[in-house]
Structure formats: structure tokens, C-alpha cells
Amino acid sequence: MSYEPPTPPTNLPTDLVNTLNESTPERLRDIATYAEELAEHKEREARLEEETTEDEIEKRPDDLPDDVPTKATITIKEINDNRYYYWQWREGEKIKSKYKGPVNPDK
């Protein structure tokens, strides 16, 4: 571990870097957790918004419930330090989810 402070990415705005530099370690950890969750959310949103072309043949997975559309993707949610799989898809402006099962069924 270096004794020098880390160098911020060049694409970060100066005001954001200054705010981070003035933050406490606890706040920085909160920011890091939020940033990671926000990135996952935005990536999931982008995946859900992608439209399949008519040329693509959609095969329905064997474990996909009847009330979940073929376009659904699997996401992982952490609840009380446990991780679970959920089917997720978009219906208009809303994102719908349906429980699939635990990530680690042995727990």
C-alpha cells in the first residue's frame, strides 16, 4: 500500500475530486457503495432498454416462469447480506421483478 494519495482519473470533474478529497473515510465508503450500486442499476437499465431485432430467435429458458416475458434478464439483489437471483424486465416505464432463488442455495 502506498503512502501517497491516489491519483484521480483524469475524466472526473475537479469539483467532484475536491469534494471526495474533503470527505471522511466513512463518507467515502458510503459513496463507493452508492456508486457501485448506481453503476449496476444503470447497466441493468441499459440492458432492459435494448430491443431485440426481429432477426433474433428468442429461445425461452427452461426455468423461465410462464408469467415472466422472454426478454427478462437475471439480476442479483443483496438483502440482509444474502444474495438472490431475480428475473427482471421492463413494462412501459416500470421495471418488474420476480424472485428466482438464492445465489448460494447451501446457505
Short description:
The chain is an alpha+beta fold.
Q: Provide the number of structural domains.
A: 2
Largest beta sheet: what is the strand line-up?
1-2-3
Structural class comes to alpha+beta
- The coarse silhouette is elongated
Secondary-structure element series? HHEEE
Number of helices: 2
Major beta sheet, specifics? 3 strands, antiparallel
Strand content: 15-25%
Give Rg in angstroms: 19 Å
Nearest-integer average pLDDT: 84
Helix content: 25-40%
Distance between the first and last residues' Cα: 34 Å
Assembly context of the chains:
single chain
Domain DUF6788: 55-105
Biased composition (Basic and acidic residues): 40-50
Region (Disordered): 40-69
Organism: Natrarchaeobius chitinivorans
List the topology elements:
Layout (H helix, E strand, L loop, with lengths): L13 H8 L3 H25 L23 E7 L2 E10 L2 E9 L5
Antiparallel strand pairs: 1-2, 2-3
Overall description:
There is one protein chain. By secondary structure, this protein is α+β, with helices and mostly antiparallel strands. It has two domains: 12-57; 65-107. 31% of the residues lie in helices and 24% in strands. The protein contains two helices and three strands. It has helices at residues 14-21, 25-49, and strands at residues 73-79, 82-91, 94-102. It has a three-stranded antiparallel β-sheet with strand order 1-2-3. A hairpin with a 2-residue loop joins strand 1 and strand 2 (82-91). The chain is elongated. The two termini are 34 Å apart. InterPro entries: DUF6788 (IPR046738). It comes from Natrarchaeobius chitinivorans. Residues 40-50 have a biased composition (Basic and acidic residues). It holds the Pfam family DUF6788. This is DUF6788 domain-containing protein.
